[in-house]
Amino acid sequence: SHRHITVDGKVVNIPSYLVKPGQIIGVREKSKSLEVITNSLVGFNHSKYMWMEWDDNLKVGKLLHIPERIDIPENIKEHLIVELYSK
Known about the structure:
There is one protein chain. By secondary structure, the protein is an alpha+beta fold. The chain has a single domain, classed as Roll (Structural Genomics Hypothetical 15.5 Kd Protein In mrcA-pckA Intergenic Region, Chain A), CATH 3.10.290.10. It contains 2 helices and 5 strands; from the N terminus they run βββαββα. The protein has helices at 35-41, 78-85, and strands spanning 5-7, 10-12, 24-27, 52-55, 60-63. A 5-stranded antiparallel sheet has the order 2-1-3-5-4, with no helix packed on it. It is globular, with a radius of gyration of 14 Å. The two termini are 19 Å apart. 2% of the residues are buried. The model has no long low-confidence stretch (mean pLDDT 92). Residues 1-25 form the RNA-binding S4 domain. It comes from termite gut metagenome. This is RNA-binding S4 domain-containing protein. One of its GO terms (molecular function) is RNA binding.
């Protein structure tokens, strides 16, 4: 991790950090203008995620509730993630 992400205003550098409903997730102030950050947010359609709020200008979001699998539209192969983390 590169210390670009904050949770409730504190830098988080743990990729598997568990976020709880109500917590504010954001991009660290010093990181907001980095090309890698701005490129990754281009075309981000936050409105398809009903379980979060997102402020494009501030680059912060709030987890409203833990999503169910059906709430996540991406084609994720969970078994590959489990495989990776179980090594």
